């Protein structure tokens, strides 16, 4: 029988952290909803519609935009959203 | 390791005829005034009849003393080597030992044999064991009854094609291709934002099938891919076709035998194929960028296995891409371009630059979509038969770019949504504008290909080209 060979791990040898998701609010009363446009084509049109619906229900809306869909959101933007909103809706695709 | 004993030290093995021949000489030395230590490499009973022989079972002593040939005679004073004779040379052995009579009756000269510690396969094992190379990566045992190649598949380490199993011996050999330390960080690889060391690049280069001499090119490619302007994260994640296209300039491309000629963008050249593949394996394995997970490409393109070629600088009518991008002539560089597949440009009848440039313009208009300007960059690969036309006409690369720029301006009315009966297009409010196909700096020209064929190639760029997405980047290749 041949001896086993040893291979060197080509990966980063990291393992994912598991975090619980924040629980969803029971209802939206009194909450501030952020609408994030990631700068994909026509994301604004989709969010305009969402805004109309939510405003009609008396919710407070804040609009945000990523500079480009191709890059992760800047930290400042993430902080802005997390400190100003209770939840966020993102228009992800075109 | 213990210090060497003072006196004479001989390294020998039974499998060497010269060693057998000098056994009487070793006996003479044994009977002389000075101490003699004999290290035997292959048989503890050799040389017969001489007591106290040390069997260098692990070849550790041989490795540390860099013994390349047996017999080797060394004189040691105060634990340090002061003289060495390699093979049998009576005059040398006499001079080294100070013995006027030694090896009488033997031929004056006989070359030795290769030492056991430098035999192929053994040398690398010894480097792993005694070379002081400190590898940090986890060692994974490949099951005894499983093919190592299958282990690599089972662990998800491949791009779909078999990889070379990254054994310690192979990785240590790969690391000999660079002067950089294995623990040096090369960059942070998306999407997992994982720190990537020289060692991890070397492991993936082994798997890709690289030779050690390619490693500096792969390292530079990984560094370039990690530059913020290149936006590797977005490029990986996009639904679009693109992936990194690697263009190598400078003397290293010729030194490692890269192809810039016939079939330069195709298969068949080990350096081209494996350097591009190594970069993609780093993204897959170190960054965790897997198709179907973070890699969301709708269709992808075959260049995502590997897309790497060299520019034909000696045949080019123009300055190399690297020089155009600010590096000195003779500097070896890697340029990365976020590109997709190859679009053919067929023009066998143009004999003037004015005609050929119009062909180029017509074909270039189609990058991504004929009605979409300034979204995707492009790279034009001009082949020799087309290049000669510009050379003969005296068009510089910048003249060609200027002429193309003039031909690639379009009125917004042709490009807006709905124009030509096509819904795709730019917003209606841009109808009155005159728009260039490519953003400033978004069009590149390189020279490569075989000498027969009036063809060129367009490599279309990512539709998120430029500061909002990916800009091409160049890195100097360091040893």
Characteristics:
heterodimer; A: 94 residues; alpha/beta; 4 strands; B: 479 residues; alpha+beta; Glutaredoxin; 5-stranded mixed sheet; 17 helices
Task: Put the structure in a nutshell.
The complex is a heterodimer of chains A (94) and B (479). Helix content of chain A is 26%, strand content 22%.
Task: List strands and helices in order, with pairings.
The complex is a heterodimer of chains A (94) and B (479).
Chain A: E1 5-8, E2 32-37, H1 43-56, E3 60-65, H2 75-84, E4 87-91
Parallel strand pairs in A: 2-3, 2-4
Chain B: E1 7-12, H1 17-21, H2 23-31, E2 36-40, E3 54-55, H3 60-64, E4 69-70, E5 72-77, E6 80-86, E7 88-89, H4 90-97, E8 109-110, E9 113-114, H5 122-130, E10 139-142, H6 148-154, H7 168-175, E11 185-189, E12 194-197, H8 198-208, H9 215-225, H10 232-237, E13 243-249, H11 251-255, H12 270-285, E14 308-310, H13 321-324, E15 333-346, H14 353-364, E16 378-382, H15 384-393, H16 397-407, E17 409-411, H17 412-415, E18 434-436, E19 443-447, E20 455-461, E21 473-476
Parallel strand pairs in B: 1-2, 2-3, 13-14, 16-19
Antiparallel strand pairs in B: 1-5, 4-9, 5-6, 7-8, 11-12, 13-15, 15-20, 15-21, 16-20, 17-18
